[in-house]
Every structure is written in C-alpha cells, then in structure tokens.
Protein 1
Amino acid sequence: MAAAAAADLVDRGRPVVSVIASPLQRTMESAEPFAALFNLPVTTDDRLIEPSNHFEGTRLSGRGGALRKPRNWPSLVNPLRPSWGEPFTSIADRMLAAIDAAWRSVDDGDVVLVSHQLPIWMVHRALAGERLAHDPRKRRCELSSVTTLSWRGDGFVEVGYANPAGHLQVLATDVGAV
C-alpha cells in the first residue's frame, strides 16, 4: 500500500527531496518505498509518533474489551481532552511543529512525512479550524493515504487528499492499533 502511495507521487511528478518518518517500525517500513523511489534516506522525527495512551495493547470493545472493565472507567472521564492519553492540542501542536521544521529544512521541493492516523487527523482538524475532539470512526485518513499541505500566506493549509492505495484496502486488515 505504501508502494502505491509512493508511485502515485512519482506519477504526479512531485519533486520529493526529503522523507521523514515516525520512529515506530510500521512507519519506517511505510517510508521505505518513498525513499527507494526518490533515492533518499529516511530520517526520523519523534514528533511524528503516535500518542501513547492508557489503552495501548488492549482491545477496546467487545467481549473482554477494556471499556467493559470498571477499573478503566476513570481514564474515560474526559473524551474532549482525552483523559486516557496525550491531549489532542498537544498532538496537533507537536505535529505542526514537525511539519514546520520539515518545510524549513529544504530550499525547494516536497517533504514526505510518514505518521499515524490520529496525529494526521489532528493536523487536518487544526488547520480546518474544527474541534479536535471527534468520533474516531469518522476520520478521513485511510491506510497509506496522502494528505497534502502547502504554505499559504502565514501558515499551512490542506490542499489535497488522495487514497492511491484504496484499491488494495479490500485485502488489508487494519485492526485499529491503539
């Protein structure tokens, strides 16, 4: 799926000059097709990482899910913050700082940043002026999708969204890693 996304950038003639990924294994693996097609190294930025939370490594719903266990309920008192992990504002701020640093790190060309669904969605919502608290089932951020930002005026704006690997998603399993 990442190879399809990278090939899409090649097909569109995008001048990719840098590839930066979260240090987690799956993002490093997803960055490799971009690095290979554009003959670039993959560097990492810890600010692109998925936020940690109280429910890491657990199944949330269904039989035996963490949400059914009363000992976990205190972690759910404030879904607007969220109370179970890193605040949404913190996620958006660190991601926007990483994006700004990446943009400033090159004189010309595109920078590919490989991150995770929630941090990408926080950037989208922050730039769109939307509340950061949201229903995670309604995120527009498919596996190996490409959200494109550009500097306009005095800040970043979202200028595009593509899902070049969409045709492969019927074969994929996204278990909603937490």
Protein 2
Amino acid sequence: MAKAPCLPNASPEAVGLSSHRLQQVMDVLGAEVGAGRIPGAVIGIARHGKLAFLKATGFRDKQAGEPMGTDAIFPLASMTKPIVSVAAMTLVERGKLFLGDPVSEYLPQFADMKVAVETRDCRTGTATLVLDPASTPMTVQDLLRHTAGMVNPSLQPVTPVRQRYIDAGINDRDQTLAERVDKLARMPLAHHPGTAWDYSHGVDVTGRLMGFQAQTLEIFEAF
C-alpha cells in the first residue's frame, strides 16, 4: 500500500485560525493532565488541505514516564461513526445515495428481515421469541440514526434478542467488517425499522454498504 502524502504545513492564521485560541485549547488539556483526569492528548487540525496545528501534551505511558508524541496511535472507537456518516452524506449530496433507499438495494442479505416479539407462557413464565416480518424495510437513514431495529450486544439489559447477538459473536474482534455485517443480517430485529431508537451497529452496516459504491474511494481520497 502506498504511503499517503503528508499535508503541507501552514500557520493557523494562514488558514483562518487563531494561534492564541488554539493555545487556550492546549492549556485546558494540560490542566486536565495535571489534574490526573486524562493521561495525555494529541490535537491535530487541518484546513484547506494544510496542516495548521499539531501538538501533544501529557504522557503516552504515564507509569513509565513516556511523553505523548504527535505520532501516537489511538483507537478511534465510535469516532469512526462521524467519519462514515460524513462520507455517506457526501454521497447523498452527489446524488449517488438516497437516505430513503432500502438497505437491501445494496446488501441483499437485509431483505425480508424479521422482528423478534417476546411472548411469555402465563403459567410457567417461560419467554419465547416469535419472529414476525418487519413492517417496513430498513433504510439508509435508519442505519445512520440508529432506528434500523438492531441492537448492540454490549449494552444492558441483556434481553433475549441481545443474547442472540452475543451468542452469534457480533462484537468479536477477530472478524472482518463483511463477516460482522453478514451476521447482523441473520439476526432478528428488536424493533420494526423506523419505530424506535436503539444504539446499534447501524453505522458499521453503512460502511459496508458504501463499499459497493465506487465513488466512495474517491471521497476518502479527497479527505
């Protein structure tokens, strides 16, 4: 894989930023480090294709006394969500993707999704999941706003639907995005699409969906 070219440097003022105010941000972070609330941080700001600010504060390894460097690597975790969402909305702006599109137009495995309805035996109290057809197809908009009907297996309480996600290994780290999305397509939904908000892996599915859009690579290169 070719190494991405480095951005040219520029002063903050050259791209419409304030050195004084950026230093105030670093002062706040330095105070957080001093108070022991965070071990360290890196701030990088690029504007108009130029790197205008890049500074580190605190420690990469506080116990070992290793200072934080501007080349430190952090797990992005849920910060991948705004990245994917911006890419999706860029496709929407270009008329290459529509928020009302059914997800199954891009990922056929999400056609004919089922919603798990919990019923209980009034005598024994035993819970049973009955699978009903989803009342409407999940859309791209549902994925982005967490109304697709899916759940996140790492959250509480552990409902019968969430337990199925756990048993299927939805959150396993040793799998590709394609493998995770294929598992999600086989899971029952907890809600009919568009009817309830439930934090889920919808943005993961969005990322996979955009993999089928040839224009996506162009967008990421533009970033």
